[in-house]
Design brief:
By secondary structure, the chain is an alpha/beta fold. It contains 11 helices and 22 strands. The chain is globular and about 65 Å long.
């Protein structure tokens, strides 16, 4: 009689040794137990640990470290408050790893994604060295924290414990900029003192659900937005007066109405309560005006490096017309406008397009124009009107490029093309299609999110000679 496969009898609480082979997309160590994949948060490649099972499914096992038997040289040693906090909240998945090794592991995540999807020639892609930070801490220029009130009346703000709705109060967060975190912490006693109703998700009652604070290094100023469950805001004038007096670095106070229970942070309506409608920040030589919901990269020092890299890879000239897809508030396209004949940006969010046009005027740029809509729809329309784009930069969301946009790119075939990706899996998937007509001339990880498993990749694509010959 054939014995039962031990992997099928694994139970929660069971312990067994695991050797991690690699790091997964969420920063967890990946090993195998009787040919079944095991995910272990905090375990590094080549480390050996006795692990305790926390979850069993048909396809995988989740476990936690019970005891390390063999420790990697890549592990941070000594007292590491960030690594301890990593077990409590998200956003610090790699804080237990020495920073140089974090960069190598993220590079490997890109290579794992390429090996899974197998775009043409992926084994020989020319990887450049990862671009890291000199100081990979306190880089996040925006804080978005839910707000709750404890049973004893204290108002707290922070992040949830993983896979729960339990909010952890965060007086410190090692990746957050000091200014944005300080503004959040100063706001809490004001809300408590004024007895402003705090949202209770279980009862769907209360008013203030969350706070968003964006800070600008340029003038050391901040923009504060209260996300509320109602358009009414009790004690509004007293609250505004207290913020202006006690948190003078806040120059813009806003309210966002979000009655939804679906977990989305922002609602559709935002209005100014007091102060300036925009926060001004500088990237490179340009200054950008930012409304509360405007998208801006969270790590400005690395963003400047990334834009410099994009400019080098595109090698633009005054004969080029540049299409800036997923343009946001125009930061990429406007940073390149000086080098080209003209820039057209396309963006689906109307407020972002309004901000982009405002930023054209703010910087005295006259050769850039922004349109509302989907790239795959507007681009062929512009082509039909006689507009040809010799250069393209795409910076899509984590979902990657829409299939219809991939088809449009392969039809239009811009000569100069850079893809900025924040998701290595959708990048690898998209390259399967794009490499039908393009080859990869440069691929490089730039670390916009130190201490996390998030990966940013910049790829230069060049039209293949054999395709050009066929087209002729």
């Amino acid at each position: 009689m054939e014995s039962e496969n031990p992997a099928t009898t694994v139970t929660t609480g069971q312990r067994f040794p695991i050797t991690a082979r690699k790091i997964g997309i969420n920063g967890e160590g990946i090993g195998y137990y009787h040919h079944k994949v095991v995910f272990v948060p905090g375990l590094l490649p080549h480390e050996v640990a006795v692990c305790e099972v926390t979850k069993v499914t048909d396809r995988y096992i989740k476990a936690k470290i019970h005891r390390l038997r063999k420790t990697s040289a890549a592990r941070v040693t000594g007292d590491n408050p960030a690594a301890k906090l990593a077990g409590v909240v998200g956003g610090l998945e790699l804080a237990h790893i020495r920073y140089p090794q974090q960069l190598l592991f993220k590079d490997d995540l890109i290579k794992q994604a390429l090996a899974k999807f197998k775009p043409r020639g992926y084994e020989k892609y020319p990887f450049a060295a990862p671009i890291g930070m000199n100081d990979p801490w306190h880089y996040r220029n925006k804080a978005q924290f839910p707000i709750r009130q404890t049973s004893d009346g204290h108002v707290i703000a922070g992040l949830y414990r993983p896979n729960t709705q339990e909010l952890v109060d965060l007086p410190e967060m090692p990746t957050q900029s000091p200014l944005s975190l300080a503004v959040c912490r100063k706001l809490l006693p004001i809300l408590q003192r004024l007895a402003i109703p705090i949202y209770d998700p279980e009862k769907n009652s209360g008013i203030v659900k969350a706070v968003a604070v964006r800070d600008a290094h340029l003038h050391q100023q901040a923009q504060l937005t209260l996300i509320t469950n109602s358009k009414k805001l009790p004690q509004k004038q007293a609250l505004i007066a207290a913020i202006q007096q006690e948190i003078p670095e806040v120059i813009s106070i806003n309210q966002n109405y979000n009655p939804n229970k679906d977990g989305l942070f922002w609602g559709d309506e935002t209005w100014l309560l007091a102060g300036e409608p925009y926060l001004e920040e500088q990237i490179g030589e340009l200054r950008f005006l930012l409304s509360p919901r405007a998208f801006l990269q969270l790590n400005l020092p690395q963003t400047e490096k990334m834009y410099q890299l994009v400019a080098e890879l595109l090698a633009l000239t005054k004969q080029d017309s540049l299409l800036d897809a997923y343009a946001g508030v125009g930061t990429i396209g406007l940073s390149l406008a000086h080098a080209v004949k003209n820039v057209v940006g396309i963006e689906e969010i109307p407020e972002a397009v309004q901000d982009a046009e405002q930023n054209c005027q703010h910087n005295g740029i006259h050769n850039a124009h922004y349109l509302i809509g989907q790239v795959e729809t507007i681009w062929p329309e512009l082509t039909a009107q006689g507009q040809h784009f010799s250069a393209l930069v795409v910076d899509p969301p984590r979902t990657g490029l829409a299939p219809s946009l991939l088809e449009t790119i392969l039809t239009q075939e811009p000569e100069k093309f850079v893809y900025i990706s924040c998701n290595e899996s959708t990048l690898a998937r998209d390259l399967v299609e794009l490499t039908k007509k393009y080859r990869i001339a440069h691929i490089q990880m730039i670390d916009l999110f130190p201490q996390t498993a998030r990966v940013e990749t910049v790829v230069k694509l060049v039209r293949r000679a054999d395709v050009k010959n066929k087209r002729r």
